[in-house]
Design brief:
About 70% of the residues lie in helices and about 0% in strands. It contains 16 helices and no strands. The protein has helices spanning about 20-30, 30-45, 50-75, 80-90, 90-125, 130-150, 155-180, 200-215, 235-260, 265-270, 275-280, 290-320, 340-360, 365-390, 405-420, 425-450. Helix 2 runs antiparallel to helix 8.
Length: about 475
């Protein structure tokens, strides 16, 4: 057994060391979730809003161990679809996992667009009704489409800058929160007060809040796509990924404590810009109440753009391999971007924004964010099972190894978090179901039109 995989096994340049990888992971996790959903989480459990974020961290940690074994065992930029494909060898299952990941990008970007619109109005101190927020979200999604069509050169340096902006906003909330607390402006009794909605038991309140808070922890799984560009991934990934998860969880807990200590839960839960409300209450009269919405807009805009890029490229890759209709594989001659896939995913995202806003009794941000977590938890369940199945596959280089009970527990917990027993809003299942039905129909229609055997999907050639 060799100590490490061959450094020449990839055409990609290995440029990322521990520091850059840590910033990438932290930047991928931070973003829309904590900026938009802190109030919604508090609405489920009262002042103990920090508890669901902590529970979501432990759920993410279980799956992170499985990802660490797989990414160090198979250091390829393909992620969950590759692991499921290697474990089960079923092309239709590989397609479903890949399409589910794509759908999670759409729902995440749609959530970010709603949060962007809400913060935009807050920055200009305008009281906007839900219709105006929806129109703002649609307009922002169209802007993301134009940027995506023009072509975006994502770089590690750009990610570092945006990560520092996102992190700076959360640190600002924490610092101002503790400043207000030191001056007697906080009610610490609320931090340990556990209150549940009248229509939910304690168990349902905790699980539904955790299911919602989990949206703030997703993003760590994207780091596996950087495996081929990381120095010694088998050595660096474990400590960096676990450090990144722990750091973001600590930030979330501190932010949620500051939020509920300064703002009554009812007021916090009804706000679409909860952290802006916290900063305004902590430092009245300072320009922070304008700065904070702008920081929030940067954070969620980056999340939306990255997710829409990921979704369009996955759709393009599946079309190019013949598992989805060919019209999705058209590339613009001048910009060399997959324009048809970009337009198609944008139409789907706008449809989600409009339909969820009209159909859901709860806020659209909650519904779309919860759907993102639902889709990814289903994928994580497969990943946790895949790591156990792939124990029979030996590789020549050293790699991280999680324990079988941890992987099994991760699979069971993720499966449970997908079920209705968690108290999820019905709209989340409806959105996820219709998206997956659309994918299956597109797969089936493509087979009927071309009258050929099921196409083989190679996860390593998707992007």
């Amino acid at each position: 057994m060799t100590d490490r995989p061959d450094s020449g096994d990839t055409p990609l340049k290995r440029v990322m060391g521990p520091k850059l990888l840590l910033l990438f992971i932290v930047g991928d996790i931070l973003g829309t979730g904590v900026y938009a959903l802190t109030g919604q989480v508090a609405g489920e459990v009262g002042g103990a809003a920090w508890a669901p974020f902590l529970a979501a961290f432990f759920i993410a940690l279980l799956t992170a161990f499985s990802y660490l074994e797989l990414v160090t065992k198979y250091p390829r930029a393909a992620g969950a679809a590759l692991y499921v494909h290697k474990a089960f060898g079923l092309h239709f299952l590989t397609f479903l996992v890949c399409f589910t990941v794509m759908c999670s990008g759409l729902t995440s970007a749609s959530t970010a667009s709603q949060a962007f619109a809400a913060n935009l109005f807050a920055a200009f101190h305008v009281e906007a009704n839900p219709l105006w927020v929806t129109l703002g979200a649609v307009g922002f999604m169209l802007l993301v489409m134009l940027v995506n069509l023009r072509g975006v050169s994502e770089s590690v340096k750009t990610n570092v800058v945006l990560t520092l902006v996102e992190l700076g906003g959360l640190v600002l909330v924490i610092l101002l929160g503790f400043y207000a607390m030191s001056r007697g402006g906080a009610d610490f009794s609320r931090v340990v007060a556990f209150e549940t909605p009248e229509d939910k038991s304690v168990f349902l309140a905790i699980t539904s809040a955790t299911a919602l808070a989990f949206y703030a922890m997703v993003g760590f799984e994207d780091s596996v796509n950087m495996a081929e560009e990381t120095h010694d991934p088998h050595r660096i990934f474990p400590k960096v990924l676990l450090t990144g998860l722990g750091f973001t969880a600590a930030i979330y807990v501190l932010v949620s404590i500051c939020a509920v200590a300064l703002i009554p839960v009812g007021e916090l839960a009804s706000s679409s810009t909860p952290l802006v409300l916290v900063v305004k209450r902590a430092a009245p009269g300072l320009p922070t109440e304008t700065i904070m919405p702008i920081i929030s807009m940067f954070a969620v805009a980056n999340s939306a753009l990255i997710n829409m890029m990921m979704a369009s490229r996955l759709l393009y890759g599946m079309s190019r391999q013949g598992v989805l209709p060919g019209f999705l594989s058209h590339v613009h001659e001048r910009t060399q971007t997959p324009w048809s896939a970009i337009v198609f995913t944008t139409v789907l995202a706008i449809g989600l924004i409009v339909l969820v806003t009209a159909a859901s009794d709860s806020e659209a941000i909650r519904a779309l964010g919860g759907t993102t977590a639902l889709l990814l938890l289903a994928v994580f369940a497969f990943v946790n099972v895949a790591v156990l199945v792939l124990r029979r596959d030996r590789v020549e280089h050293a790699h991280f190894r999680t324990s079988a009970p941890v992987a099994a527990l991760g699979a069971l917990v993720c499966l449970f978090m997908v079920t209705p027993f968690t108290g999820r809003d019905t709209i989340q299942y409806e959105v996820a179901g219709w998206l997956l039905v659309l994918g299956v129909l597109m797969w089936g229609l493509n087979l009927l039109v071309h009258r050929k055997a099921p196409a083989h999907l190679d996860p390593e050639r998707l992007r």
